[in-house]
Amino acid sequence: NADVAKNRAKLDGRGSVWFFDQQLHDELLHQHRLVDRLERAMDSEELSLHYQPQVAVGSGRIENLEALLRWQPADGAPVSPAEFIPLAERSDLIHRLGDWVMETACHQRAQWRDAGRAIERIDINFSGRQMSRSDVFQRFEDCLARYDLGPRHIGLELTENVLIEADDRVLEGLQRLHHLGFRIAIDDFGTGYSSLSYLKHFPVTALKIDRTFVRDAPDQSEDRAIMEAAIFIGHRLGLEVVAEGVENLEQFTLIREMRCDLVQGFYFFHPMPAPELERVLDGLLVAHQDGSC
Ligand code: C2E
Ligand code: MG
Ligand code: MG
Ligand code: MG
User: Which residues does the UniProt record annotate as the domain EAL (predicted)?
Assistant: First the structure.
């Protein structure tokens, strides 16, 4: 491939072309290797789910958890899902990853249920390519059934763009889940290329306001205005509204004044492995019984 790039650059006879091709080539090679390593990671212990609590603004209680995929290669630095999910989406690997996430989240939720833990729901992220598999919803329902779980236990997060690109089959699948009582959230709300009219058609139960608005809200009146409008529309449509990426008290104070329902972010909890989350929950319980909290 390097030779091809070099030859093409030679034919063009321009240094800048060679430079561009070399960069492109390096990037493609890097991506290719990453997908290769990820494929092998699937059969190892390198993948895990972390869980980030969502806190009710009114009561301060932990309501739901979002499951977030983590990849810690045995021989190197962790790779962010923001990097490897889009790569996995370009191949069938995304379907295997999606199955793995579903299975792992269901297994964990069933374990917590069996241990009598007061945990509500685990929400899992679905990407666009995952929806292209014709039996995606059947697999979801089958997975839950294997663990004797229902709509109270597992929810879904989809981005606006996934919803807009949804065809009739996907729409019907979501409608069925919605009808069964599953919670379906629109992730990163406000960042997709969408008109608001799509909100009329989609069987969703929650909006998650993208963290870029939350981040800039204290300093930018435009971001505050967009957040207020999103919360207003969400509530008028009977949806639950979640603010993502709350990192400090200033942001939280604003969000509380705006009457957002739930908050998620580093100010409250980072995403954590299951054992760590259990320790946190145990700590909260003890604090509550002591009356010290
Ligand atoms: P997302 O679904 O919007 O997830 C929220 C992201 O915000 C997570 O990044 C989370 O760690 C991060 N976050 C939470 N609180 C804060 C905060 O206060 N400040 C900041 N700066 N960030 C915060 P993460 O885990 O790196 O995931 C990135 C994206 O990768 C996710 O965005 C989601 O689109 C995708 N992803 C993660 N896990 C999965 C998965 O299991 N399946 C699929 N299809 N996509 C996933
Ligand atoms: Mg999400
Ligand atoms: Mg999000
Ligand atoms: Mg995001």
Answer: 31-285
